[in-house]
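Notes to self after the call with IL:
- keep both proteins in one doc
- input above output, always
- annotate only the second one for now

Protein 1:
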Amino acid sequence: MPIALYEPDIAQNTGTILRLAACLGVEAHLIEPAGFALSDAAFRRAGMDYLDHVRILRHISWNAFAAHRQAAGARLVLFTTRAATSYLDHAFARDDILLFGRESAGVPDHVHAAADIRLIVPMRAGLRSINVAMTCAMALGEAVRQTSGFRHA
C-alpha cells in the first residue's frame, strides 16, 4: 500500500515517514517540489540508514504523479482535516495510495477534488491538526492491519 507526500516542507517529518515506510515495507511517492533539498542533512538524519530499505518514487509535479496513479488504476485516499469520514470507518484496499499534504498548508483544492476518498483522523475540537508523520503512522498502521497484517521478522 503506497503512501504519497504532496510537496512536503519539513525534512524531518519526511525522513520519519520514509523510515516508517521502510519498516512496514511500503513504497513512498514524493510529489515535488519539496520545501527542502532532498539531499538535506536533516532529511537523511531523520531517515537514517532506513532510506536504503524503502522504494522511493519521485514525481516532478502533481500532474506527473496523477498520470502515474491513473496508469496504475489506484484509488487515491487523501487524509485531510476537511473530511467528514474517520479513517477508522473506512475499508482500505491493498492498492490504495494514501496521500498526505504539506505540513504548512495541506493540499490545494484541485488535489482535494482529485481524491477518490477523503478521510480524517478524529481529534479534539479547537485544535488544528496532528503532525503529518504521526497521522501517516496512524493511517498506515490501520490500512496495513486491514489489508495484510503486519509481517514480523
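Protein 2 (the one to annotate):
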Amino acid sequence: MKKLKVIFSTLVFTAGLALSSIAQANDIKIGVSFRMLSDVGYKHGELITDTVEMWNKEGGINGRKIDLTLYNDECKSEKGVANATKLAYQDKVHVIIGSSCSSVTLPMVPVITKAKVPQIIPHSTSSKITMQGSEYIFRVPVSSRFYKLVQGKFTAEQQGKKIAYIYVPDQASMVFAKEMIQFMKDEYGVEPTYAVQAGEKETDFRSYLMKAKATNPDVIVLSGLVDETVRMLVQSYEVGIPKSVHRVANSVASKVEVPTNAGKAAVGVVYSAAFAASDTRPIAKKFVKKIKDTYGVTPGHDFSQMQDLLDMLKPALTKASAKFTGDLAADRLAVRDAIAGITNFTGLASGPISFCANGSPECRDGNKTPVMIKYSRGGKNWKTAVAGTVTFNPSDGL
C-alpha cells in the first residue's frame, strides 16, 4: 500500500504542480475509479500505475505524457458516481477505467454518457450495464448474460437440477442468481428447491443454509461478493451440508481471496470466469509468473482483465491521440471511436475481444468466451483446473 500511495502522490504532484498548463493540454489523461479494500485490490492499482509509469518511461504515447488520476470507490455506488463526476468535469480525463463492482459501474453510466467521456470496465459483469445503450461504455470482462448460459448448462447437465440459491443484494450477485434461476426454468422446466436474498451487509448465512439443506439439493448456488462468498462456503460446512452437494459460485470466486480465505471449503467449488491461472498457454504462463514475481499473488481473472484492458487501451490511445486537437470533447470522441474499433484482440482472455460502433450490448460486451473452472485445492497454495470454454454469439442471453 505504501508503494501505491507514493506512486499516486508522484503522479498527481507532477500533473498538478510541475507541469505548465500548456504541457497539461498535451497530456493524455486517464482516470480510474475502482474497489481497493484489500491487499489484492491495491495490487490492481499498482498494476495500472506501474504500467502507466512504464509507458511514460518509454516516451509516452505519440510523445504525449500519460497523466493518471486514481480514486478508490470502495465498492460504494455514491462514491463511484462522485468519482465519475470529478474525473469527467474537474480532472477532465480522456477516458475512465472502472469500476470493479457492478453496483458502482451501473449508476456511473448515465454520468459518463452525459459528460461524453468513454469508460472501459475492467471487472463489472452485470448485464444491465451495457443494456443502457450508452455509446460511451465498453466492457472487457464476460457479461453475466453469458455466464448464466454456460453455468446453467454445466450445472444442469453435470451436477444436477435440484438447486438452492442464496444471494446478496450486490447487483452482479443478484443478477447472476436470478438469471440462472430463469435459465433453469426456461431450458429445463425446473424451479429452485429454495431461493433467498440475504440482507445487506449480512455476515451470518447459517439460517439460510439450514433451510437450503432441508430441501436436499443436488447443488447450492452461493452468489455474493468476496467476503460473503467466503463466509457462505465455510458456513455451508458448519451447518452440515455434505461435500456431495455441489457448490457453485459466481465469477467473484476467481478472486484469490476466495480460495485463500475459504481454505478447504473452496475445494470442489465450480465457477465460470474469463481466465484461470492454470491456463497452459505460453502467454498465460508468462503473465502468471510476472504477477507472482512482481506482486506476490497468483492472479485470478481480475488481474488478467485489467492487463487485457491496458494492453487494448494503449493502441487505442495511440490511434486517437494522433488526431487530438486540444478540444476535450473532440478528443474524447476520438478515444471512444478508437476503442470501438478494437476487433479480435487476442490476449489473456480465452477468446478474442471485439467491440463495434453502436452502444448495444452486442457491440459493448467485448469478451464472449467464459471458462468453466473448479478448485482442486484451497488455501494459500490453491489450485484450479479448467473444465472447458464456450464462445457465445453477440446476442445470446439477451
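Annotation: Residues 138 and 206 are 38 Å apart (CA to CA). Residues 5-23 have pLDDT under 50 and may be disordered.
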